[in-house]
């Protein structure tokens, strides 16, 4: 009996010791560099946001935060990599509406679950699009486009960076609210869509403000509306689409930080706190706004709820459009 009791106590001690290992690791984290995976190519908004946050985060943590780009297939390559990374706090990623809300609506074999395989850390900010047409377009208002689309279904074209992109989602929401049918023309990137818009090959593009800015400043395009629920400060006179014949229209992409599921809560809490404070800094807010990102900074729980609300919203819209994953 004594030997049995000793065995039971030893086993219990072993369990307690094993349970204390993650807590001990969390207490000393980080003791080496942290990898910040961006599932898109260098040069885009996601990459710029990651580098801005990483530089500040590294200073606060006392360790290097190294940005690594792992682009491919609408962000699947990098996102799948992080989903299966060791959950020790040394691998985090920049996630978007594409990677962490809508990819499963368009792609069957994503190789990850955007909710179950990740822990939301912080919502860095939201990104609005603008509806633009070329400067010599016959369209001067959103209502003119709606009228034309109703009179001639599937005639008007809009360019996108592919299924699940913010341009595509904006177009789907436009059709859902207006009861129209537009024809999507997919490109490998938003910049190619803008080239064809200027060349007269397509009728319109729902582009991010940052990407459209050079053409807006050069007066090469007309801005008919913004996809946020409020006017944008640096686009004077441009109203939300919700006020221009599309009631309830709100489409904002977003930039957030995620960690693999199972990452110690203490580490996630620290990351969330630090990133929230980074986003609140005036100089960081200014830089984000220049990128077309509206600073946010909400933490773990609020960001998690936001993500689930986004998934619910876009699931309804995509299914109503009859789109099925392939």
Q: Any overview of this molecule?
A:
The protein has eleven helices and ten strands. Helix 2 (45-61) crosses helix 9 (265-280), helix 4 (97-106) packs parallel to helix 11 (300-320) and helix 6 packs across helix 11. The protein folds into two domains: 33-126 and 252-320, D-Maltodextrin-Binding Protein, domain 2; 128-243, Periplasmic binding protein-like II (D-Maltodextrin-Binding Protein, domain 2). Strands 1, 2, 3, 4, 5, 6, 7, 8, 9 and 10 form a ten-stranded mixed β-sheet that branches. The radius of gyration is 23 Å and the shape is globular. The protein has helices at 2-28, 45-61, 76-83, 97-106, 142-151, 166-178, 190-199, 209-217, 265-280, 282-290, 300-320; strands at residues 34-38, 65-69, 91-96, 118-134, 157-160, 183-186, 204-208, 221-226, 252-260, 293-295. With 326 residues, it is an alpha/beta fold. Helices cover 46% and strands 20% of the residues. Residues 16-21 have low confidence and may be disordered.
Residues in helices, as a percent range: 40-55%
Q: From the alpha-carbon coordinates, what is the Rg to the nearest angstrom?
A: 23 Å
General form: globular
Task: Look at the helices and sheets and give the structural class.
Answer: alpha/beta
User: Count the strands?
Assistant: 10
Question: In the residues, how many domains can be counted?
Answer: 2
How much beta, percentage-wise?
15-25%
CATH topology (level 3) name of the largest domain: D-Maltodextrin-Binding Protein, domain 2
CATH class of the largest domain: Alpha Beta
CATH evolutionary superfamily of the largest domain: Bordetella uptake gene, domain 1
In round numbers, the mean pLDDT is 91
Order of H and E elements: HEHEHEHEHEHEHEHEEHHEH
